Amino acid sequence: MISREVCARVLAKAVSTGADYAEIFAEHSVNHSIAMIANKVENVNDAVVAGAGIRVFKGLRSVMASTVDTTEEGLLRCAEKAADALGQGSAEITIDLRERLFGDIHPIKIVPATVPNAEKVRILKDGYFAAKEYSDCIKQVTGTLLDIDHNILIATSEGLYAQDRQIRTRIAINAVAEKNGETQTGFFGPGRRMGMEMFEHEVNAHDVGVKAAEQAVIMAGAGYCPAGVMPVAIGNGFGGVIFHEACGHSLEASSVAYGTSQFAGKLGQQIANPKVTAIDDGTIPNAWGSINIDDEGTPARRNVLIENGILKTYMIDKFNGRRMGMESTGSARRQDYSYTTTSRMTNTFIAEGPDDNDEIISSMEYGLFAKSMGGGSVNPTTGEFNFAVSEGYIVRNGKICEPVRGASLVGKGSDVIMNIDMVGKNLDLGTGMCGASSGSIPTTVGEPLIRVSKITVGGR
Amino acid sequence: MDFNTFKKAVIAAAEKLGIAEYELYYSSSESTSVDIFRHEINSFSSSVDGGVCFRCLVGGKMGYASTEELSEAQAESIVRRARDNAATLETEDKQFLVSGGEKYAPLDIKPYELPTTEQLIDTALKGQEAIYAADPAVIDGTSAGAESGRTTIAICNSNGLDLSYSNNLAVFYAAPVVYDGKEMSDDFNMKTGSFDKLDINEVVSEAVDAAKSMMNADVAPTGSYPVVFSYKAMTSLLSTFSGIFSSENAQKGLSRLAGKEGQKIAADFITIVDDPFYKDSAMPINFDGEGSPTYCKNVVENGVLKTLLYNLKTAHIAGVKTTGNGSKAGYASSVGIRPFTFYLAPGKLTEDELIAKAGEGVYINDLGGLHAGANAVSGDFSLQSSGYMIEGGKKTRAVKSFTVSGNFYDLLNQITDLSNEVKLPRAFGITAFGSPSVLVKGLTVAGK
After folding, report:
1. B229 and B128, same structural domain?
2. Same domain, yes or no, for B371 and B228?
3. Which value, to the nearest 10 degrees, does the dihedral of the CA atoms of residues A445, A448, A454, A460 take?
4. Residue B88 and residue A49: Cβ atoms within 8 Å?
5. What percent of chain A shows pLDDT beyond 90?
6. Are residue B261 and residue B138 in the same domain, yes or no?
7. B437 occurs within a structural domain
8. Does the beta carbon of A183 lie under 8 angstroms from any beta carbon of chain B?
9. Chain A residue with minimum CA distance to B1
10. Is B173 a member of any domain?
11. Which positions of chain B have pLDDT values less than 50?
12. By CA distance, what is A322's nearest residue in B?
């Protein structure tokens, strides 16, 4: 993308006013998508995203400048802008770049850009029509097949010069069902850090469509979820969004470093139920949120965040790590070159626990089984979170009974992770996009079936 | 290369490849921002981004391709890619490019002078000190910041259309964190506009008061209550469900307002306006995302749905004229539909009168998790809320960590009263939402 020699000259310009660290993040990506609605291919789009962001640090101060002009002149202008904004001074470090190869722990067998649109359309239709034909109640289906070829280059004043190519593929089907004038939706959207081989052995497009349609039909026939405080069992896979929101965001250095996290200053302390072990692992081969190196060039790691309820580590990037006096954990991520990198999650999940899945349900006299979760959000300062239950069932006398719609769960992160009192054995991962200050990034959430002893369920 | 050079290269490439009907859409934004931690600059950023989208009609299909890299190679590549993408499309909806020679309302905007980098830093630092000075409960972690930016949009097409727009925006924000020894609480407040007229202390004190008021707030008791949604909460609902007024969603079976034009869908006194030139808009504009002229219209008038929002494609399907609501979510997006300043028109009561009328109920100041807890198709919502109990017709103790549930379609008929002032919280783009505070008969609140 940009030669080592050019990077060296740009970094030299970036540190010319006394920065103690400088970094170039350059990107050339192609985002390709095919969208279907009303049984037809409605839209095909491909966008080339290309540019560079230059960051300089001096002590606890960071400056970022970005540009779409990646010629040497453009990069030098951008570096000068960053250097000028840092203040006045003279260069204190010299630049000596050595290329480093990290290898690829996420092999790609079929690069999506080499597959014709017609083949992609065939796969998308497989999923689309599986949903459409699932039931007469299905009134509309939308489907998207997305592939992203994200090439990044990172060069830093510490001497690193490295590149990575991140390919991701995702299919998402949204189904709308109508019964007695009531409309409800169902969604399923699995993705992997993989090429088109994802459809050969990991994800069956047809099953994706069926799952989305099934959920829409079940929910269209459901009554409203009752409101109140009750025990809730949360299903595996995307159910792990509860940990992501209730706890994960508050363990990111972007809030911990500033003291504005409910878990700041609690390393080594019991913050969760002893049955909870939670991990952020960017190294899971071909998982949606996986990376080889983070967006500061630090190799991906498996970070045990909480072990048997004890807080072990935070997720840390280089800049916020300075404030905390801690090393990067390979957690620096950004949507693209125009965002300022910060600490984010990769694949974050609650590990399997000691409880039997059947016992989790049978332990509940009256409560909610949240089989599928929608998205959610959190305020990391107060820990107050919310998320939507996209497919829920009432549990009565230890048995899963009728489906209920329109439920949401709210509470405080530090309470809810203490109240996760049963952890089952069917760990699975779910695909998501996570939005925060450094943009929207692919992340995985996950968990086995768990039980929260009490939580506020919003319904009516 | 710059956009104009790139434009020429694209036009030449289109000609060479025999493409006669096409459009080039360009948008870019430059922004500079600074934020403060403790008493010093924490980070400073200066970013430039933007790109070009080329779309063309080939065999009646509209193919799209985009790039941020403005080079000779890309000029030809996007034309080829758009042409090839068009070949994959199956939709039979007729597609259009705006014809040249449309009449556009004069746009009376005077972009204010953007703050210099020094002014940005100075304002942010002053803001931070004002937060610390506002209350002894303010702690580190608090931040103030300032941002300035310039947005440019240009559209040209093979029908001779050649439009451009640019506007400036300056923002100051305050994000205090307060702590009483037991619990932290925070808030975020911002103000856009020229820094000459900016009252830092007003932005700061509103934010600090809001953060303090939620400290140690109780969880609301579960029950069914009359609910007052503040202008901020009602704006959140209106913005989340604004998609139901899109003709595209209606035509695709994703809105229950399909076929309801001319019918009553809301209480008699409900009027909803879409105004591209609204007085409080930060970005008034006289052309839409595909270059059609924009104008002000009542979408709902006295409870009757007067019109959905249309672009050229959906208007053709419905046999009506476009309402000038074609929109692109980003330069690379296909043309969809969005409102401009979309607001619920005010009523007659003061907010205090509205609260008095509620008697015993809940005042919801803020709603959270809108992207998750609200289903834009079914209209159902169950949302994280915070606010106050209403007792004896007055706002009393603060409450949080509860949900309010309902259905937006029903809500339009359940509103019984409106306050007399429309406010636009966080209006900084071409699309903005606003509302007065509203009183709703009875909704379920789930708390403790």
Report:
1. no
2. yes
3. 70
4. no
5. 93
6. no
7. yes
8. yes
9. A69
10. yes
11. none
12. B42
Asked if A135 has any chain B CB less than 8 Å from its own CB, the reply is: no
Same domain, B129 and B270: no
- Cβ–Cβ < 8 Å for A54, A82: yes
Chain B hits for A41, CB-CB cut-off 8 Å, are 88-91
Pair (B204, B232) in one structural domain? no
In chain A, which residues have their Cβ closer than 8 Å to the Cβ of B375?
A: 184-185, 388, 406
Residue A168 at interface with chain B, using a CB cutoff of 8 Å: no
Total Cβ atoms within 10 A of residue B334: 18
Q: Is B187 part of any domain?
A: yes
Convert the pLDDT of each residue in A174-214 to its tens digit: 999 999 888 899 999 999 999 999 999 899 999 999 999 99
pLDDT of amino acid B427: 80
- The range of the structural domain enclosing residue B191 comes to 117-148+168-216
Question: Would you tell me how many other CB atoms lie within 10 Å of the CB of residue A399?
Answer: 12
- Say how far apart CA B422 and CA B420 lie, in whole Å: 7
Q: What is the pLDDT of residue A310?
A: 98
Q: Domains in chain A, please, with CATH?
A: 112-150+166-222 (3.30.2290.10), 228-458 (no CATH)
Out of B44, B53, B377, the one facing A183 most closely (by C-beta) is B377
Judged by CB atoms closer than 8 Å, whether chains meet at B140 and A60 is answered as: no
B357 and B434 co-located in one domain: yes
Q: pLDDT by residue (tens digit) across B60-73?
A: 999 999 999 999 99
Q: How far is A389 from chain B (nearest CA, A)?
A: 8
**Tens digit of pLDDT for each residue in B194-213?**
999 899 999 999 999 999 99
Q: Are A388 and A370 in contact (CB under 8 A)?
A: no
Residues of chain A contacting residue B37, judged by C-beta atoms under 8 Å apart: 60, 258
| List of chain A residues with pLDDT < 50 | none
- The number of folded domains in chain B is 2
Which helix or strand (DSSP H or E) is residue A432 part of? strand A428-436
State the nearest Cα–Cα gap between B26 and chain A, in angstroms: 13
DSSP letter at B33 equals E
Q: Which CATH number belongs to the domain containing residue B125 in this structure?
A: 3.30.2290.10
Which positions 289-318 of A are in contact with B (Cβ < 8 Å)? none
**Angle subtended at Cα B427 by Cα B423 and Cα B429, rounded to the nearest 5 degrees:** 150
Query: Cα–Cα distance between A74 and A68 in angstroms, integer?
Result: 8
Q: Determine the 3-state secondary structure of A135 from DSSP.
A: coil
List Cα–Cα distances, B292 to B24, B71, B195, B285, B341, in angstroms.
14, 29, 33, 11, 17
Tracing tokens 């509309």 back to the chain, one arrives at A140
End of a domain among B157, B187, B216? B216
pTM of this prediction?
0.93
Q: Which of B28, B30, B173, B34 is nearest to A85 (CA)?
A: B34
Find out whether B325 and B363 touch, Cβ atoms under 8 Å: no
Sign of the torsion angle spanned by Cα atoms B7, B12, B16, B21: positive
- Do residues B227 and B271 share a domain? yes
